[in-house]
Amino acid sequence: xxxxxxxxxxxxxxxxxxxxxxxxxxxxxxxxxxxxxxIDALNNWKEYLSGIKRYLSDSTIAWDNMGRYPRFxxxxxxxxxxxxxxxxxxxxDYTTNQPYVYVFKVNLKPKQFGLMxxxxxxxxxxxxxxNQYLRRNLILN
Length: 141
What we know:
About 40% of the residues lie in helices and about 15% in strands. It is α+β, with helices and mostly antiparallel strands. The protein has a four-stranded mixed sheet with strand order 1-4-3-2. The termini are far apart.
């Protein structure tokens, strides 16, 4: 009979904080504001964004201990896993002296969740609805 051994880890490595660049954070806020009435799609999209953060917060993934992901000369790492298409660097928060994941490129995929991503589309929709309303009222009156 062969002996079996198990490794029990009582402590997992700490999760890293994940921060989106200010440009990405602004885009997320803009898409959120444009779609505030599409609650189900917005919730699904936010879960997608949370999934990105959860995945990157795993220190083994973030530090790429297995060397699975392409690295750029500036030290940035690119991940295509799960269709996230994320480019990031590991930076240090100088107030806490702790490392964090700084995401500077990500495919937000608002269209895949049925979300509008620009104001021009909303203005076009409003214009079309208004034109239809005016045509109906002018024809009927």
